[in-house]
Amino acid sequence: MKARIKWVDHMAFLGESGSGHAVLMDTAPESGGRNLGVRPMEMLLLGMGGCTAFDVVHILKKGRHDVRDCEVQLEAERAETDPKVFTRIHAHFVVKGKGLREEVVKRAIELSAEKYCSASIMLGKTAEITHDYEIADG
């Protein structure tokens, strides 16, 4: 996997992934930026959320469950001193589908957290990661 980060101006940087996609990162004006994009630490949190959501949907679909929507709401806390690593992350899953059973959704989330989601397993080296979920019929 490769990536490239290019300084644009002020404190804005363009990140380009090896797969050809780009994202703008910036910081707040009080830190020299213009607030044009997400912060790098926000990118890490988004990456973890995307990784685990992908896993959960994939696991449910592979099990032929009728999953129709999956949202992960994340809340994180960081250390107060440098390096300001994540110390706590909570992921709340909202999974929608027809006839989804609680034990199936719970197991998909556990498999992601314990086996498949590289991002959350890596971030779990410094942060306490917790999960909960709700299931909606639809």
Automatic annotation (TrEMBL):
InterPro entries: KH_dom-like_a/b, OsmC/Ohr_fam, OsmC/Ohrsf. Gene3D superfamilies: 2.20.25.10, 3.30.300.20. It holds the Pfam family OsmC. It comes from the Bacteria. SUPFAM superfamilies: OsmC-like. This is OsmC family protein YhfA. It comes from Methylococcus capsulatus.
